[in-house]
Amino acid sequence: xxxxxxxxxxxxxxxxxxxxxGLILGSAALMGLLLAIWxxxxxxxxxxxxxxxxxxxxxSAIVGARIYYVAFMWDDYKNNLIDIFKIWxxxxxxxxxxxxxxxxxxIYVRKKGYNxxxxxxxxxPSLLIGQIIGRWGNFVxxxxxxxxxxxxxxxxxxxxxxxxxxxxxxxxxxxxPTFLYESLWNVVGILILLVLRRQKFLRAGELFMSYFIWxxxxxxxxxxxxxxxxxxxxxxxxxxxxxxxxxPMTWFGFEQGYLAPSYGNVRISQMLAIVIVIxxxxxxxxxxxxxxxxxxxxxxxxxxxxxxxxxxxxAEVPGQAEQPVVNESSVTEKDHSDxxxxxxxKA
Length: 347
Fold this sequence. Notes:
Low-confidence stretches: 325-347
Number of helices: 12
Function: Catalyzes the transfer of the diacylglyceryl group from phosphatidylglycerol to the sulfhydryl group of the N-terminal cysteine of a prolipoprotein, the first step in the formation of mature lipoproteins.
InterPro entries: Lgt (IPR001640)
Membrane topology: Multi-pass membrane protein
Radius of gyration: 24 Å
EC number: 2.5.1.145
Keywords: Cell membrane, Membrane, Transferase, Transmembrane, Transmembrane helix
C-alpha cells in the first residue's frame, strides 16, 4: 500500500512539475551561499566571487556525485550506458558530490588568486548548512531511510512528531529516519564550526578539515542504519573491525540496516569515513609541522591577482628616469599578504 503522505510535487506550471526535492536543494544552496557571503565580508571578498563559485560548484557536485555512484554500481550500467544520464531516477552519492565540488573550487579559487585553504575554511559551514536542509528532500521523497524499527521506538524513545513518524511508515513498515539523524548531527556540527572559527589558535585549512572530521564521524554511525548503502566485498577482519566500532549504537536500541550479501560486507561510506577522519587529522598535524608561518584563520585574505592589478604604476617624466609611484593601498595589502606565508596546494 502507498503510505507516502507528502506529495513530492510542490506545484505545476503547465506540464512542468516542480518537485519539493528541487526546491529544498535550491534553498540549501542559497542558504550556504548567504552564509559564505556573510563571512566573506569580514575579509573584504566580494559576493560575486561566492556566487560564481556556487554556479561552478553545484553542477560539478552533481556530476561528481553521479560518477561516484555509477563507478560503484557499474554492473548495473555497463550494458545500458544511456541510463548513466538518467539522474532523475536516483543514484547520487554525497562523497562524490564533495569530490566534484572541491576539484572545481580548487581550479576556480586558484584562477582568482586566492589561497584555497582560506576560501575552503569560509565555505565549510556552508557545506553543513546545505546538508542540514538538503536531507529533508530525502524525507519528502521517502528515500534514504534506515532499516525497519517500531512505531513505539520512534514515538516513545525518540519522541518524534507525528508528521515524521507517519512519513517513515513505508508500505506499512516503520523505518529509521536517517535523514533526520544526519540533519541534527550537522546542526551540532555547524555550531561547533561557528565557534571554532573565532578562536585565535585556528590555522588556515583547519576549519575545512574539522568539517570533514565531524561529518565523517556522524556518517560512519548513521550509514550502517541504512538499507541502500554502496558496499564491497572486503576481508572478514575489516568487516568485523567496522562492525565492532559501530557496536556502541546497539546500547541506544539501534540495529544495522540490511545489507544484501551480493553487495558486499563493507559499506563504502563507512570505510571512506574512517579514511577521511585519519587523513584530515594527519593533514592538520603535517601542515602545522611543515608549513612555515602557517596563517591563522583570522588573518587577512588577499588575492595575488588583485595585488598584480594594483601594482605600483610608473610615472613617465621626459628627461628623467622612470620612478615608481607609491600606492599606499598596495603597500597595505602587501603587508597583509605577508601574514599568509603559505603556498597554495597544487591541483
